[in-house]
C-alpha cells in the first residue's frame, strides 16, 4: 500500500477489494429483507390491535350479541359445539374481559380498561415500528455505500 500523504485522496477500491464490498452489500441487503418482514409483521399486529380496540368499544353498547347470526331473521343464532353440532347462542356480559397482562397472568377488566390497555400496546407497537424504520434507513444508507464501493472497485 502506498504511503499516505496529508491532503491526498485515496480511492475506496484501494481500501476495500471488490469481492469484500460485494459480500458486505449482499449481507446488508439480506438484513434489510429480514427487517422488512419484521416490519410487515409489526404492522399486521398493530392493525389487529386497532381492530380489537374498535370491537371492544362496540361490545358494551348492547346487552347481548347474537353469535354466528343466521342469514334468516326468524332463526336464532347458532354456536358451534364440536365439528358437527350447533346450539342457539348469544354473548352476554359484554362489558367483562379477561385480559392477558403478560407472562401468563390475566386480569378481569371492563371494556374501558381493556381499551386503555390495548391503546398502550398499540403505542408500544407504533414505537417499535418507528424504531425499525430508522434501522432500515440506516441499513439502506450502508447498502448504498457498499454498492458504490463495489461498483468503484469493479
From TrEMBL:
GO terms for biological process: negative regulation of transcription by RNA polymerase II; protein folding; response to cold. Belongs to the RNA polymerase II subunit 5-mediating protein family. One of its GO terms (molecular function) is transcription corepressor activity. GO terms for cellular component: nucleus. It comes from the Eukaryota. It is found in: Nucleus. Keywords: Coiled coil, Nucleus. Residues 115-142 form a coiled coil. Its main location: nucleus. This is Prefoldin alpha subunit. The lineage of its organism: Eukaryota, Viridiplantae, Streptophyta, Embryophyta, Tracheophyta. SUPFAM superfamilies: Prefoldin. The keyword Nucleus applies.
Amino acid at each position: 500500500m502506498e504511503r499516505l500523504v496529508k491532503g491526498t485522496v485515496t480511492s475506496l477500491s484501494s481500501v476495500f477489494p471488490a469481492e469484500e464490498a460485494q459480500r458486505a452489500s449482499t449481507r446488508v441487503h439480506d438484513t434489510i429483507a429480514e427487517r422488512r418482514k419484521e416490519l410487515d409483521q409489526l404492522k399486521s399486529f398493530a392493525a389487529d390491535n386497532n381492530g380489537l380496540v374498535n370491537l371492544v368499544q362496540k361490545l358494551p353498547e348492547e346487552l347481548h350479541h347474537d353469535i354466528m347470526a343466521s342469514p334468516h331473521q326468524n332463526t336464532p343464532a347458532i354456536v358451534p359445539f364440536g365439528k358437527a353440532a350447533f346450539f342457539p347462542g348469544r354473548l352476554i356480559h359484554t362489558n367483562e374481559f379477561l385480559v392477558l397482562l403478560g407472562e401468563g397472568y390475566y386480569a378481569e377488566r371492563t371494556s374501558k380498561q381493556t381499551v386503555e390497555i390495548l391503546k398502550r400496546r398499540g403505542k408500544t407497537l407504533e414505537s417499535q415500528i418507528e424504531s425499525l424504520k430508522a434501522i432500515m434507513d440506516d441499513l439502506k444508507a450502508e447498502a448504498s455505500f457498499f454498492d458504490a464501493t463495489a461498483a468503484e472497485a469493479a
